[in-house]
Amino acid sequence: MQSIGIVAPSSMHFAEPLALKSGAQIGDYTLVYETYGTLNADRSNAVLVCHALNASHHVAGVYADKPKSTGWWDNMVGPGKPLDTDRFFVIGVNNLGSCFGSTGPMHVNPATGKPYGAAFPLVTVEDWVAAQARLADALGIERFAAVMGGSLGGMQALAWSLMFPDRLRHCMVIASTPKLSAQNIAFNDVARQAILTDPDYRGGDFYAHGVVPKNGLKVARMVGHITYLSNDDMAEKFGRKLRNAAENNDYKFDFGVDFEIESYLRYQGDKFSEYFDANTYLLITKALDYFDPAREFDGDLTKALAQTRAEFFVASFSTDWRFSPERSREIVEALVSNRRRVTYAEIDAPHGHDAFLLEDQRYMNMVRAYYQRIWDQLQGAQA
Amino acid sequence: MQSIGIVAPSSMHFAEPLALKSGAQIGDYTLVYETYGTLNADRSNAVLVCHALNASHHVAGVYADKPKSTGWWDNMVGPGKPLDTDRFFVIGVNNLGSCFGSTGPMHVNPATGKPYGAAFPLVTVEDWVAAQARLADALGIERFAAVMGGSLGGMQALAWSLMFPDRLRHCMVIASTPKLSAQNIAFNDVARQAILTDPDYRGGDFYAHGVVPKNGLKVARMVGHITYLSNDDMAEKFGRKLRNAAENNDYKFDFGVDFEIESYLRYQGDKFSEYFDANTYLLITKALDYFDPAREFDGDLTKALAQTRAEFFVASFSTDWRFSPERSREIVEALVSNRRRVTYAEIDAPHGHDAFLLEDQRYMNMVRAYYQRIWDQLQGAQA
Fold first, then answer.
1. Which residues of chain A have a pLDDT value below 70?
2. B47: closest CA of chain A, how far (Å)
3. Are the CB atoms for B309 and B282 separated by under 8 Å?
4. Which residue numbers delimit the AB hydrolase-1 domain (chains A, B) (predicted)?
5. What domains are there in chain B, each with its CATH number?
6. Which residue positions in chain B have pLDDT lower than 70?
7. What is the nearest CA distance from B22 to chain A, expressed in angstroms?
8. N or C end of chain A: smaller count of CB under 10 Å?
9. What phi, psi does B219 have (nearest 5°)?
């Protein structure tokens, strides 16, 4: 299978204000997006792919001028891939508040003429979905063949099935959860405290000061990254291997790097702090914390999901301790209680939460088979 | 059962330098300690209790001038308690490098006339045990009835059984591990990075600048605290409860406190940052990372533990994901392979790693029964 090849982002400006769940609104805004494949004549083959914390509209392919810029789900989306772009018209949208092109904290607030910074309104999963629906309107897509996402992206897919029940045939929720646990929120708050207390954060207006709260972002990313990997996988990949093993295989007795795992995490943290926006990190973690569709139903997920009309594909990974299989099973059980059609795959995979992004034959085969079914349905509907 | 009542610390100065595992040495130093109960005539009833990261020599009782200063294991140690001070002579020692009285980073380095700060040498679990052994010498204790500890304290008990096999009859290792995992080290390094990158850390010499790296310490404590609690316990105690639930039960849409768990963790972090020393935190996490008695035996714990002579009590807690029961079983299996006498209790308890400090009837009964056995042995030996 080959990659979809060279791709390029588009952007669309929305002049009508968007009312947000917080009560605030965004006056006008731009969404950056990419599409792959061709929309068919009856506009029935569109699939929306929703991104997670550290990703964007750039789902598949590469940019002409950046040969290493492969999209984050390139193994999943492309010609002949599980989500086959020879069949489906795939859309990736960068969410509001992100730092990868769509209107976000580093953009100019028309009200002040200065970057939004911490004044960018907190956006929720539901706000993102509302903005995505406007893009779908503009692209002439009344109903998606599927809305699909992993982790935070899965929350968006779930929100689509609740907010616009008739605008998606299939809802694909992977490595996700109906709401964060106290432990999930706790890790997010550690990350936020690391950023907020970094003196270079400057109350969110660091752009004006020509600084970046790199130390805070680094610590935030390090703690986040630990929760993306499984304990076993970390043990196997790093264990207690020393960074300087080749030299003398001894401890350094200082606060530099002794172990490979320290080197790896610090490197990941440093890299992240060089490209990710601190305000975006803060607001995305809040969107995660706030997501809880059962909340308006006294915590009853079954009642919440009674609004859905889509068919569901839910998948989880055995070693994912961030959003464990148990959390996916809650979604499945609530759907089954509502007599919805639901396919559930609990995949035995070693790579923790990150597994949803990685190549795994059983996982890919499941998604491929499910898209075959969607395709067969579409053919039947056309026949 | 009543507390042991009013207690007071003692201190002992050691003029002879202590050679450390790192190759460095500490010229002279003071250890602060407390004792409870009475040493019997043949000096056979002494029990050494080793402390973990955030604790000290103050194991039981209260200080006369501080009615809320109850010792950290007061539920375990006292008259009629599982470790009964009517029978045993119990010693708690504050370890070198700590911030609770024994010589540590905030004390004056005789070589410079200024506080050690980051120049305080990195000390290991084995260095602590060597220092404790000198205190035992000074107190005239040739052989302990037991050396006991939880978590990092359990590592010290294990190190005693290896370094001084004939100086303890019983070794009691609770909620501990023969070595940290990559994930354990990763969390420690997040904590260290938070402290080291706090501008108020000032390379460890913050004392001279009249500041404290409170933000770094706060984040370090928050992430540590998450690993002390179980996921289930956190879910039950905090869940998604909002801090302002009584007011309007809505999200705040800012970066203040929304959830109870955020409030709790930030409070714990703030409190910790007001009394704990940043240099001590750094060096204790390194002592944790470095502990690995099997290292000199090509990673073979069975070979390492062949040096032991003591009888063992090992206990773990079902929901402890920091040092899970699996890690205790590694110790037990290595001991059994060496045909050592070992009692192992895997206790079904909801409170995660912190369970070793908490009241739990089954746990307390196990420890009580084990000390009864030690007592019976001592009576037999005297008869």
1. 1, 246-247, 382-383
2. 31
3. no
4. 45-358
5. 6-179+293-382 (3.40.50.1820), 184-284 (1.10.1740.110)
6. 1, 246-247, 382-383
7. 6
8. C
9. -65, -40
